[in-house]
Design a protein that fits this description.
Order of helices and strands: EEEEEEEEEEEEEEEE
Largest sheet: 4 strands, antiparallel
Strand order of the largest sheet: 1-2-3-4
Mean pLDDT: 93
Structural class: mainly beta
Distance between the termini: 38 Å
Radius of gyration: 16 Å
Length: about 170
């Protein structure tokens, strides 16, 4: 009876995160293990993204004012809410096995900026030639970050950003 569904991430143990919308358009997050869907009920209405080897997931939920916040949900169900300092919206998309989280945030009427959250510390990442939008979507265990800036793909490693161009694009 779902109106739509999407997967967000997958770890090496074969667990997959996802979200579906029910017939009333309510969002439900889950972790798929084999053919079993395990509901992610906290935070309510969340969309889940990345998952690491410890089955810690990250994602985004919306508060009662419609503002987006990131979250980190441990395998025991405990949740940490993630809001970039001063941001109106924060979206978390990926987590690696070391607990590094990436995503993006924006302040009111401001451009989207990528963030790296590590050891309770925030850092901003803006791709070159992308002053209006930097969005981070993945982070490997070797801390290679992938994302996009103003419709261009980027890879970031060791302080260096590289634009990846598809031939003919």
């Amino acid at each position: 009876g779902a109106k739509g569904s999407a997967f967000g991430g997958r770890n090496d143990a074969g667990l997959t995160t996802g979200t579906y919308a029910d017939s009333s358009n309510n969002t439900h997050a889950f972790i798929r293990k084999g053919s079993t869907l395990i509901p992610v009920v906290r935070p309510y209405g969340a969309g889940v993204g990345g998952i690491n080897r410890y089955n810690t997931v990250v994602g985004t939920y919306f508060d009662s004012n419609g503002n987006a916040h990131g979250f980190k949900r441990y395998s025991d169900g405990n949740v940490i809410h993630l809001t970039y300092p001063g941001a109106q919206a924060t979206r978390a998309y990926a987590i690696n096995d070391s607990g590094v989280i990436v995503g993006f945030y924006n302040v009111k009427y401001g451009p989207e900026r990528g963030f790296i959250y590590k050891n309770n510390q925030w850092a901003t990442l803006q791709f070159p030639n992308a002053p209006l939008s930097t969005e981070l979507y993945g982070v490997s265990n070797s801390n290679v970050i992938v994302g996009q800036g103003q419709a261009h793909a980027y890879v970031y490693k060791n302080g260096t950003s590289k634009e990846i161009s598809v031939p003919g694009s």
